[in-house]
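Escalation from tier 1.

The customer reports that the assembly of two entities below gives different structure tokens on two consecutive runs. Tier 1 could not reproduce it. I'm attaching the input and our single run for tier 2 to review.
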Amino acid sequence: MTIWLLIAFSAVTAFAFRALPFAFKNSRALTQPQGAFYRFISYSAQAMLGVIVYNTALNKMDALTLILQFQILDALKLFLLAGTFIAVVKTKKILPSFFTSLCIFVAGYLYLEG
Amino acid sequence: MLTADTPARSSAANVFKEGARDAITFGVAFIFIYLSIGAVSAANLLSLSQAAATTLLIFSTPLQFLLIQNYSDGWLLIPIILVLNARFVLLSASLAPYIRTSSNLAILSCLILITPSTFTGCITRFKRRTDHPLQYLIGLGLPIFVASVICTYIGFIAGAGLAAPVIYAAMTLLLPLQFTALAAKQWPHYPEASSYWLGFLGAPLLVYLFNDYSLLCTPFIIGGLMVVIEDNYKKRGSAAL
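Tier 1 run:
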């Protein structure tokens, strides 16, 4: 039963947080994209994606742990993330860079982990 | 109201189709991610209806993985659920100026489609064109949502066959590769791209300050910092003139 309650709580809060800004959709702060508040929200959203990516790729390691436990696989991840960014900027296409990086990572993982 | 910087205005149906076409690019990672969510759900002894409900009702990859893998922790998960869901405020607030002219009912019925991927797809588009923004969001998000539900089902049925170590390893990089590629689509909007990388670089450092709430607090620090830097840069530019 707990899992259903957790799913229900997650669903309600996800909906509420998605809906909340639209309650203020006509406010001055959200109608002026050049305004400081909107830019703050917009840049924070991008930064949040960066935090999610770091946490997912490198398992939420803090800086010291990352340095002490740094592995070749972590270096490969960092290299591929930077490489994917540069490749998409240059080519303007997501899919080729995405699949190439994914294939390289899987090949690297299989090689390193035997 | 935003001024539409539109090279050519299209009909709502055409905009929907353009969104659906872009869904292939922005949503490809969802196939792998939701196959994995289905497989991990089966491996963690969830029922098919529970696995499907997480996708149908929540549609948030990190939160779904958290629930599926840690539901035995029960109510201890509530603060983390709130933090993970609070990020949707940022995404919705960024999209609000563009789709605010649509009816409340239409907006409410599309809320489930707002994810980091559809957000990036929409923002990338809306910086160029702002005609029929809600139709674009639906065209982009609906195929991704439907595909994710189907993949959750397939992944659950395939179950252990997909739960190999290499799949789990690939999972750790699927979402990061997807988001990084999406962030690159912001180029040459330097403040947005810089915010993304500052978030990435700041995460292992600011976690010392914010611990479990780093996901919520770190972005605001960086967002504020970027606004200050940008405003100072503009002031210097205007003073030089």
